[in-house]
């Protein structure tokens, strides 16, 4: 190819039309097109375009500012997490391709298997046992009725599916606990600035890791780095984070990481919603030295293109 043009199309209908017209040869792993859009395109353009999938690598979650009340008590976050209907989230987003919301990426070598997650509290169907436990947890924390938490404010970036995800979750909190969540819709730069400054109540965002190792994801989200917008600091957890960092025996490292995961099920400052499984739709004319297009394992390597050409 003589050149590679990256075109930003914010309207989903326009993007889909451009692909169908052959004006777009490939998408990046993160686009405004949702899973159902990609599946339809792949079906309509079979023999001309192919849909490629990455492993789950991008968590989407809500989080609370643990330097502020009432979130200093992480049991309250746990209660909201228990009352979150993860199965409803699965039905609403991802067409069944996404992973369930969990502290670590489901089915990763250092995380719980999906079949084991679905046996844990918080993943129940019907949801009533989780709701009862959430109400009991809030009562023990001094909120004998959840409405005593007052109206909470959730900062939501206007990008991708976030406004829709936030509306569904706010409806769940109202339905399951009687808690009112006010949605504050802002652009992405405003949202990130708000979280970095600490001037927020709750936030909605996610993280797509760079490499498939806990030293990236776990350190970024739960460690002392800048992406831990929650300000959550647990000395015991941070100590284990350092232990696994220098452990060369994979079995021993895994043992430490599983202890960390179990701690997060109890005390995580996040309400994990789902793990997105990103995808690309690519023209079959696009070739590489390996033959067909080869998708990257993580979204952060989506724009690294080498030894690529178009067949005439």
Automatic annotation (TrEMBL):
Q: Which domain of life is it from?
A: Bacteria
Protein's UniProt keywords contain Repressor: no
- Its Gene Ontology biological processes? peptide transport
One annotated GO molecular function: peptide transmembrane transporter activity
The UniProt keyword set, sorted, is: Signal, Transport
One Pfam match: SBP_bac_5
The UniProt record lists the Solute-binding protein family domain at 2-226
Record-linked Gene3D superfamilies: Dipeptide-binding Protein, Domain 3, Periplasmic binding protein-like II
Similarity remark: Belongs to the bacterial solute-binding protein 5 family.
Q: Would you tell me the protein name for this molecule?
A: Solute-binding protein family 5 domain-containing protein
């Amino acid at each position: 190819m003589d050149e590679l043009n990256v075109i930003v199309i914010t309207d989903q209908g326009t993007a889909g039309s451009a692909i169908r017209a052959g004006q777009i040869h490939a998408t990046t792993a993160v686009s405004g097109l949702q899973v159902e859009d990609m599946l339809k395109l792949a079906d309509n353009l079979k023999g001309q375009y192919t849909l490629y999938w990455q492993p789950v690598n991008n968590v989407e979650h809500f989080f609370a500012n643990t330097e502020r009340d009432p979130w200093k008590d992480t049991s309250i976050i746990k209660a909201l997490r228990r009352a979150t209907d993860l199965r409803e989230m699965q039905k609403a987003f991802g067409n069944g391709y996404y992973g369930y919301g969990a502290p670590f990426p489901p089915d990763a070598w250092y995380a719980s298997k999906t079949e084991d997650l679905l046996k844990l509290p918080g993943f129940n169907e019907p949801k009533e046992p989780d709701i009862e436990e959430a109400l009991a947890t809030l009562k023990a924390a001094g909120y004998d009725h959840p409405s005593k938490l007052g109206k909470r404010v959730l900062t939501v970036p206007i990008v991708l599916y976030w406004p829709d995800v936030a509306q569904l979750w706010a409806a769940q909190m109202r339905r399951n606990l009687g808690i009112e969540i006010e949605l504050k819709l802002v652009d992405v730069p405003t949202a990130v600035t708000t979280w970095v400054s600490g001037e927020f109540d709750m936030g909605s965002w996610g993280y797509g890791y760079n490499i498939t190792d806990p030293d990236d994801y776990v350190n970024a989200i739960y460690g002392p780095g800048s992406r831990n917008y929650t300000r959550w600091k647990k000395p015991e957890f941070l100590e284990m984070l350092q232990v696994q960092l220098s452990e060369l025996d994979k079995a021993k490292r895994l043992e430490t990481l599983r202890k960390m995961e179990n701690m997060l099920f109890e005390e995580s400052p996040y309400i994990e919603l789902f793990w997105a499984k990103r995808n690309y739709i690519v023209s079959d004319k696009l070739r590489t030295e390996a033959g067909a297009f080869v998708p990257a394992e993580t979204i952060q390597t989506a724009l690294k293109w080498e030894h690529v050409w178009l067949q005439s």
